[in-house]
Design goal:
CATH topology of the largest domain: Aspartate Aminotransferase, domain 2
Distance between the termini: 57 Å
Radius of gyration: 21 Å
Number of helices: 12
Structural class: alpha/beta
Order of helices and strands: HEHHEHEHEHEHEEEHHHEEHEEEH
Shape: globular
Helix content: 25-40%
Number of strands: 13
Strand content: 15-25%
Number of domains: 2
CATH class of the largest domain: Alpha Beta
Oligomer: single chain
Length: 368
């Protein structure tokens, strides 16, 4: 049988999203994982205990995500919205996937506008569902991004999708620019995966109460240290939440994830201590990297730091390869669309002692 003749032809236009680095780190636990924007801190003890407490109940289904009122009410209070505005997902990426399906009416005609650079996992799924993609470049800076977004919008545009703080840059588009986009009447999807590490007042989650064309994506993977649990949520108008619940798989959130999410919401002050450790280490790391000749770290409001090494005499690839030799897996952006070739790499913020060691290695490497 020739499967290529019967499978969805869009499969052959989808770029692979390479995750071999995660497997490498599981196979060699000595590698410091500074490549995937996970947290190097374990979940707080209360979350760990909540996960353990449901182990003897794994023979039962968890609540279906369309119900789960206790968790949804706690998330709603955290985000200053109502429970009816909250949809739960197996990571926020599942909810984006559902949005791409629910909003698609005319394959190869309906358009999505993305920023460039932005999170690379958006593109493969959009292509699979038949979306036409337009890119608004960030070369003029985030404060000018709305102009470029609006220039890309056409009558076929269904939505604009952007991460804020931006992944991979760590910068935040001004709130005024989000307002300008919302005023176009198009759906504006703001991915706030890293919001727990951003400055106070950065989030636009409560704007869901004002704008029926605003969708906010959130996750427990980053600040809450729960990447392996796979729990995310979407904030949107109740009508769109109903459409998402109608389109997803039943019981898409597992029992451990439900318990972990509730515990995180019940112990926010302890979780905020982790947020502060991450941001303090991030700011220290940024300042120290800036002391390395030719290194230009980009001020970040996320749990990572992007570094431009163009003027250091080293390439991004050389820096990444050297750090791996030293036991640190960081992320290369040598071939990232929208960025100068082989000029950027990104460090996920780790434990303070690990970041101190990493900086020493970088200083020695550049001095060679």
């Amino acid at each position: 049988m020739n499967l290529k003749e019967i499978v969805n032809p869009r499969l052959f236009d989808i770029p692979d999203y390479d995750q071999i680095h995660v497997t490498q780190c599981w196979q060699d636990p000595t590698i410091r994982r500074e490549m995937s924007n996970e947290s190097n801190y374990a979940p707080i003890p209360a979350i760990q205990e909540a996960i353990r407490s449901v182990a003897d109940k794994a023979n039962y289904y968890a609540e279906d995500a369309a119900y789960a009122l206790s968790l949804r009410e706690k998330i709603a209070a955290y985000c200053s919205v109502k429970a009816e505005n909250v949809a739960l997902g197996n990571g926020s990426i599942e909810l984006l996937d559902l949005l791409f399906q629910v909003l698609m009416a005319a394959p190869d005609k309906d358009e999505a506008v993305l920023l460039q650079p932005d999170y690379s996992a958006y593109v493969p799924r959009l292509k699979f569902f038949g979306w036409k993609i337009k890119f608004a470049q960030l070369s003029a800076g985030l404060d000018k991004a709305a102009d470029q977004v609006m220039a890309a919008i056409s009558e076929n545009t269904k939505f604009v999708l952007l991460s804020r703080p931006n992944n991979p840059m760590g910068t935040v588009m001004p709130r005024e620019e989000i307002t300008r986009m919302l005023e176009t009447g198009k759906l504006i999807i703001v991915d706030e995966a890293y919001i727990e590490m951003a400055d106070a007042g950065t989030s636009v989650s409560e704007w869901v109460n004002q704008y029926d064309n605003l969708i906010v994506m959130r996750t427990f993977s980053k600040g809450f240290c729960l990447a392996g649990i796979r729990l995310g949520y979407m904030l949107a108008t109740p009508e769109l939440v109903r459409y998402i619940n109608r389109s997803r798989h039943i019981f898409n959130i597992n029992l451990a994830a439900m318990a972990a999410g509730e515990a995180a919401m019940d112990h926010l002050n302890e979780c905020r201590q982790i947020f502060k450790k991450l941001t303090d280490t991030r700011d220290w790391l940024t300042a120290e990297l800036a002391k390395i000749p030719g290194f230009k770290p980009i001020p970040s409001q996320a749990n990572f730091v992007m570094v431009n090494v163009k003027d250091s005499g080293k390439t991004a690839t050389e820096c990444v390869d050297y750090l791996l030799e030293m036991g640190f897996f960081v992320r290369s952006f040598a071939k990232k669309a929208g960025l100068e070739p082989d000029a950027y790499f990104r460090i996920s913020v780790g434990l303070p002692e690990d970041m101190e060691e990493l900086v020493v290695y970088m200083k020695e490497f550049v001095a060679k």
